[in-house]
Fold each of these.
Amino acid sequence: MTPARIVLYGFVGLVLLYLIIPVIIIVPMSFSSARFLSFPPPSFSLRWYEAYLGSTAWMQATKVSLVLAVSSAVISTILGTAAAYAINNSKSRLVHSLQIILLLPLVTPIVIIAIGVFFIYAKVGLLATIPGLVLANVMLGIPYVITAVLVGLRKFDPTQEMVARSLGMNRLRSFFVVTLPQIRPSVISGMLFAFISALDETVVALFIAGGENQTLTKRMFTALRDEIDPTIAAISSLLTAISFLLVILIALNARETKAAPEQDANSH
Amino acid sequence: MFLLLTPALAVIVALLVVPLLWLAWQSVYHNGFTLENYRRILTEDIYWHSFLQTFRIAFIVTAATALLGYPVAYVAASLPRRWSIIVLAMVVLPFWTSVLVRAYAWLILLQRTGIINSTLKSLGLIDVPLILVNNEFGTVIATVHILLPFMVLPLYATMQKIPAELTMAGASLGGTPSHVFFRVFLPLSLPGIIAGAVLVFVLTLGFYITPELLGGGRTFMVSMLVSRNVELYNEWGAASSISVVLLACVFAIFWAASRLIPVERLMGMR
């Protein structure tokens, strides 16, 4: 290996450490017995996990977040898949310009989205309600689902669906029997994206969550602004574990997609 | 077909498009047409300082992610597949961790009594703890950490498509390794750099959680200006004009970049 290569690999190694250390450092901190942060922890204990699991406020927030993440992932997957199918099968220019609107939540700064939703909800009385939180996260999740499902649809040969229809199936049935099973991996990964996005969403929740219906992230944010409580480390470790589990699911799922016969995925 | 599009469209129009139009209207109308809100952005120090600081941070973060991310993407693209998957996994892992969790981790690492300060102290390198957080420095460190994957992934996608024959041809024609890199490889990877830079820059402009938690009140980015005006002062006129300007910046950058490379690539649809 040339000296230049060694320097290059060394540099890349340091960058990777910078990426990884903050993600894993919270795990030992969460098992610390100390009230104040010290590293390495003086001794290990489960007290912060007990503090989390024993607190009704944290448990209520966790329940709200989970209900919210599951229901908005399911709803945005249905709406997003329908929209992606329409975009893929339509030649109209209108539909293609509407696509830009559907991707708008991805590029709009989140605070602007948050104050906009806050304003609308204040008018219609959806502030601090579960349906309000779900609807807002459906809006944020739709672009992820559309992007993921479009990737799957572009690999899918539409003539198969035409054959099914020429054999007498109606459009709806041919979609569920022929198309959906083949694009299933991308629909699932879209749903997982939407789930993580809703679980981690913080800024919109800061404005529209409240009362009984606080989300986990809103509580964490407020707690972090006031003091550094190791309970947060315990919750963070759990959240990270959930994310990683989902990433592994997405990866396994992607492998399945690759196994499917590949059409031209890069054409657009 | 249009019918299938309607439900998704309805949600986004009701919760995003309508509020945006309303914000635009609010910004110029208060008991009559007025440009007062925009005049304030230009004349009041706190407003344009915040815009200036936000753009400065966005430049620093974009440059830093490019400098740190380019070698990572280069190594990932040149290693055998088994190793490149490991490198990419390490890049994507933090991507999937909540932004809040990572802000917390940086507080643990960077604060006065944090891990970095106590390590440096026990090594005898410093006497007084360094001030690493609750300022712009802490914000930049954490922002770069969050956005680095957005730079590495488009770079990697571009580099992977550069045919090895081209660099080999360059070398066989007598180019030194650095010559081949700067004259052949770097120009070919330029679309990846542009895609990554645009994404990182635009995302930094809208950052909120990280500067709020790690900026210690000394980092006052535009997003915080918007939220303060709504939450504390109930000043919708100011909040909406700031939002309109911020959004105009974001759209202008995307529009300019889409002239250079396809939008789908910018949006991460690679």
Amino acid sequence: MTTEAISSRLPTGAIDTSGPRGPRPKSVTIGRIGVYAFLILSALFFLLPLWVMVVTSLKTMPEIREGHLFNWPALLTFDPWLKAWDTACTGRDCNGLKPGFWNSVKITALSVPVSIVIAMINGYALSFWRYKGSELLFGILIFGAFVPYQVVIYPLIIGMRELGLFATLPGIVIVHTIFGMPILTLLYRNFFASLPIELFKAGRVDGAGFWGIFFRIMLPMSVPITIVAVILQTTGIWNDFLFGTVFAGRENMPMTVQLNNIVTTTTGIREYNVNMAATILTAAVPLVVYFISGKWFVRGIAAGAVKG
Amino acid sequence: MTTSVSIKDLSLNFGNVKVLESLDLEVAQGEFIVLLGPSGCGKSTLLNCIAGLLDVSDGQIFISGKNVTWDEPKDRGIGMVFQSYALYPQMTVEKNLSFGLRVARMPKEEVEARVKRAAEILQIEPLLQRKPVELSGGQRQRVAIGRALVRDVDVFLFDEPLSNLDAKLRNDLRIEIKRLHQRLKNTMIYVTHDQIEAMTLADRIAIMKNGVIQQLADPHTIYNKPTNLFVAGFIGSPSMNFLKGDLNGGTINVSGTPIPLTNYAFEQQLNGAAVLGVRPEHVAIGDEARKMPFQVESEIEIVEPMGADTVAWTKLGGQQLTFRAAAEVHLEPGQKVLIGFDPARGSVFNAETGNRI
């Protein structure tokens, strides 16, 4: 086929060039306005309880009794906050949430690193050092994620009692570590499985062993996923009520349990403002964690999904 | 010549799947050997066994005369380069290069000297303080080679090192690997599925299929005297023409067209079903064809201009035949041309066993 023959087949005459050109213009459609209106309304709806909590905690009891639930306090007071923190009564002790806060700090600060370090090693071993039965072990671990906590509480209580760890700080830390293990191991295994296996092989050729590869190659790479794990565990353990009630014992009662005791106290009058303040105080830690780490959280999840 | 790597009766099973079966391979000191084959033929598995990254099911591996069958990768005197580069992403190029040496607790001055030498050889000195993400594909692969280089090993193992690079870079690095081999004179074992890499780099090529080495020979022999139909079809692009026919008394009858195999060096006698293999580049047309022992008139069906030359598709006795013509020759579909070839340059195979006769 000659070139002239091909070009003669092309359409002759000018093409109309006045039509669309360049980027398509962005227009505000009714649909878009509707979406935004819906989102804003939903946000307001879900923020309403928070608003009620905040304004109630800043009112005096007489004003609360007037019953204007949504009003801004006429007489602003911070006393309920101080009382919730320092002097509110839980049973016979009247020390406020303060001891509970420090107990929760202790429990979280110990459980988070312990559970993460173990899960990290688990995930690393399960994805790179496959051995006979490793898949089965992983399956059992994942199955553990679906077992309701309530089912295993009683046997666990007996186990802890026999070990002499029931109602102690190490006891509650071990419990949190055990229950965090399935989801954290899954998280780390999938993260390590997304790394090229050749990286691990290169480490072996370079002479690094199990721990050498773990500490010098894998650990520095797992920062994003570790941030995710820290957020998951910190908020999960801080918010826990069930294990705290059962396993922590009187000495180490976490903030959530103490909050419950303050709110459900049956003697005297119900101080709604103090209850609200105590609730906000307890919820503050996970809220702060989310606000600070939201960006990192998303980044970490994305890092797990996309190969580097 | 002394033996560098020696593999004796090697078998490897994954569960019930036999990946390698009783494989033997002797690699001489300083030899560049290429393991070539389609995906899943066991070539990478074999390399991983030599590296010690996979435990073998049976057999022995010797490197530099030492039985390393049970040794850890680091104790085998090997360096390995991977397809995905496998650079440690959080370390600088310098740290990447020195990692193995630091793990082995080598004195600092020695580490520095070796990294410097490797960087010099590979011309990556300006990149030493960069992280792998800041490097291009070719630079990354150079660092990966450097990581094997600093360890000062006897044997280099390459696992498809150029497959992730674009065509141009692949050619450049191929030359560099060849230059490196000529300079260092180490034993190199190189896995690839790219026949051009195999032909250009290798002292000897081992063509593998289903975990068995089909032919182990120098590139010239592999190309001109393939031992069976698989090797003949795998090497060469466009691939060899296979003309099925009946072999009788030194003449093969291809669907009614008799082709006398005069001067063909038969390795064994056979009368019956056979396949004549003819390389597209051994087929001549026009005046050239007139000089050939076998000539036939044929009609051109498809023309593929490649730039440097032109590949044309035609039929011989009803069977597909491609040939390579010079780019200047004007060919058009439907055109009748005289083609010819020398059957003695071809290969004849037993149609049943597929082996060369």
